[in-house]
C-alpha cells in the first residue's frame, strides 16, 4: 500500500481506447472514494483540452490540457485533495511522465482499460452521435490495437459486460495507491 504524505500524491491514470469507459469509470471511482471519505480529485484530461483553435503541433491539445491540469491540481490540493485520478489515453511513457509533472510529487500508476472490438463500437455509437462518429469508431479500434503493444501500463482491467460500478471496484482492488482505501 502506498502511503500519502504531504510530498507524495498517489495518481491513478485510467487509459484505454475511445469508448472503453475511462471517463465513466473515473466518475464511478470518484463516487466510491467519496463514499469512503478519501480526499481526491478526478479529472477527465480531454475536457481540459476542448478548445478551438489548437496549435497545429498540438493535435490533441495535450500541452493545453497539461497546463490546465497543473493549475487545477494546485487549486484542488489547496481545497484538500490528496489523491488524483486522471482519465486520458496514454500511449507512451513520455505521456505518462508529462501528466506526472503536472501533479508535483505524484507517483503515477496506469490502469489500462480493455474491451473487445464489438463492445468498443457499441459504446462509441451510443456516445458519439454527431458528425465525428466514424472518426471515433476508427480511432477506437486503432487505439485498442496500438495500446496493447505500446502503452506503459501497470495493470489492466477488462470492461466487457461489466457495469461501471463493477469495473471501478476491480480497478480499486488492483490499485494499491490510495492509502485510505481498503
Describe this structure in words.
- The protein is globular.
- The longest helix has 18 residues.
- It is built from six helices and five strands, in the order E-H-E-H-E-H-E-H-H-E-H.
- It has a five-stranded parallel sheet with strand order 2-3-1-4-5, sandwiched between helices.
- The N and C termini lie close together (10 Å).
- The N terminus is likely disordered.
- The chain is α/β, with parallel strands linked by helices.
- The protein has one domain: Rossmann fold (3-Layer(aba) Sandwich), CATH 3.40.50.300.
- Strand 2, helix 2 and strand 3 form a beta-alpha-beta unit.
Q: Give the overall average pLDDT.
A: 90
Category from helices, strands and their pairing: alpha/beta
Tell me the strand percentage band.
15-25%
Q: Supply the CATH architecture.
A: 3-Layer(aba) Sandwich
Write down how many β-strands occur, each being a DSSP E stretch of 2 or more residues.
5
Low-pLDDT runs of 5+ residues are 1-5
End-to-end separation in angstroms reads 10 Å
- Relevant CATH superfamily: P-loop containing nucleotide triphosphate hydrolases
Rg, rounded, reads 16 Å
Helix content: 40-55%
The CATH topology comes to Rossmann fold
Provide the domain count.
1
Trace the largest sheet across and list its strands.
2-3-1-4-5
Instruction: Supply the number of helical segments.
Output: 6
Amino acid at each position: 500500500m502506498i502511503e500519502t504524505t504531504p510530498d507524495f500524491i498517489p495518481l491513478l491514470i485510467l487509459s484505454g481506447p475511445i469508448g472503453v469507459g475511462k471517463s465513466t469509470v473515473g466518475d464511478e471511482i470518484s463516487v466510491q472514494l467519496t463514499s469512503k471519505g478519501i480526499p481526491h480529485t478526478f479529472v477527465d484530461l480531454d475536457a481540459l483540452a476542448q478548445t478551438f483553435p489548437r496549435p497545429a503541433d498540438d493535435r490533441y491539445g495535450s500541452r493545453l490540457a497539461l497546463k490546465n491540469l497543473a493549475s487545477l491540481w494546485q487549486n484542488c490540493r489547496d481545497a484538500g485533495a490528496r489523491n488524483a485520478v486522471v482519465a486520458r489515453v496514454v500511449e507512451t511513457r513520455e505521456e505518462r511522465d508529462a501528466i506526472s509533472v503536472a501533479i508535483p510529487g505524484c507517483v503515477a500508476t496506469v490502469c489500462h482499460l480493455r474491451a473487445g472490438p464489438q463492445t468498443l463500437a457499441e459504446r462509441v455509437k451510443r456516445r458519439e452521435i454527431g458528425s465525428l462518429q466514424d472518426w471515433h469508431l476508427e480511432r477506437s479500434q486503432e487505439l485498442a490495437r496500438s495500446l496493447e503493444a505500446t502503452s506503459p501500463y501497470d495493470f489492466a482491467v477488462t470492461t466487457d459486460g461489466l457495469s461501471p460500478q463493477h469495473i471501478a471496484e476491480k480497478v480499486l482492488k488492483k490499485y494499491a495507491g490510495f492509502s485510505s482505501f481498503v
